[in-house]
Amino acid sequence: MDAAACAEEFRRRLDAAADATESALDALLAPAPLPGEIARPARLLEAMRYSSLGGGKRLRPFLVIESARLFGVVGEAALRTACALEMIHCYSLVHDDLPAMDDDDLRRGRPTTHKAFDEATAILAGDGLLTYAFDVVADPKTHHDAGVRAALVLALARAAGLGGMVGGQALDLAAETAATPLTLEATLQMQAMKTGALLRFAVDAGGILGGASVSQARALTRYGEALGAAFQIADDILDAEGDSAALGKRAGKDAERGKATLVGLLGLDAARARRDSLVAEATAALRETGLGEATDILAEAARFVAARRN
Ligand code: GRG
Predict the structure, then answer these.
(1) CA 135 to centroid of ligand 1, rounded, Å
(2) ipTM of the predicted structure?
(3) 21 close to ligand 1 (CB < 6 Angstrom)
(4) Which helix (H) or strand (E) holds 151?
């Protein structure tokens, strides 16, 4: 596929993944209780729907769906895993926006969940999305093989928890009030945990669902790690360039808050160079899967992540 055709096909598949995720989340968050549930409280459900429907690029669902497609896996298994991951991503945004954390009023171009509802409801909506994600992955509707479901649950828990996103958020918060700024190495580790771990899970999940070989799984992980790092540098660059309106925050806000950013540590030019070499690293890792042109769309995703404006 030539570059223009690949970029067009990427957009088409990103839109398709976003549409499929929206519909599937809408169905999962329907008012009727599931077997074993007692009732679905209306206001909490409304806040969970508000937090997860009608916005976002749906990059993580796209990565699950497209990495599973590499192994011929299409349909419910990938889509439900994609929804679970997106629920965890949305929960993290809801909690990150709370007054005790980033204290933001806007997210995805509309009031944050605690502004649209109230703080207690926003905390519960996040908790509800987090726990529902594991319900969805562990449900036999996601995969007939209990071993596959257990592998997904384990990988998702590790990506989202203490040694992943939540741990990374804790390191980032601690850095804001620390006497000395984080070193480059510590910043890279914090970012790999805070934002990288869920992106990495997205492609690892495709390998788990598709029965990737050990070497293919390793290559996918390397791709996910490079993509995650490129994603975070792009975020730091957007913040520094003052082009962060769509991120729902004022330009330079992260750096001003004492948050560790790669632009702060390396400067803008070196951060851009690092971002570009991570895209090359991600693309090289895809070649190591031995899956050939089928991986072109994921290579395009790495370029998209690096060039994103929101
Ligand atoms: C509160 C447990 C907890 C964790 C928060 C990921 C995170 C940890 C906070 C998000 C803060 C933030 C805005 C980080 C920058 C990178 C990022 C995750 C941006 C939002 O992701 P996108 O661009 O968002 O994929 P959309 O809206 O497109 O889904």
Answers:
(1) 22
(2) 0.95
(3) no
(4) helix 146-160
Distance 146 CA to ligand 1 centre (A): 30
Nearest to 199 by CA among 235, 238, 239, 156: 156
Ligand 1 center to 3 CA (angstroms): 29
Tens of pLDDT along 38-77?
A: 999 999 999 999 999 999 999 999 999 999 999 999 999 9
Among 21, 123, 195, 310, which is best to mutate for testing ligand 1, by the most ligand atoms less than 8 A from CB? 195
195 Cβ closer than 6 Å to some ligand 1 atom: yes
pLDDT tens digits, one per residue of 172-224: 999 999 999 999 999 999 999 999 999 999 999 999 999 999 999 999 999 99
What atom of ligand 1 comes closest to residue 58's alpha carbon?
29
Q: How far is CA 265 from the centre of its chain?
A: 24
**Angle, helix 296-307 to helix 268-287, in steps of 10 degrees:** 170
Q: Is the beta carbon of 169 within 6 A of some atom in ligand 1?
A: yes
CATH class of 3-307: mainly alpha
∠ CA 34-206-222, rounded to 5°: 135
Q: Is the pLDDT of residue 293 over 60?
A: yes
Q: Is the CB of 92 under 6 A from ligand 1?
A: yes
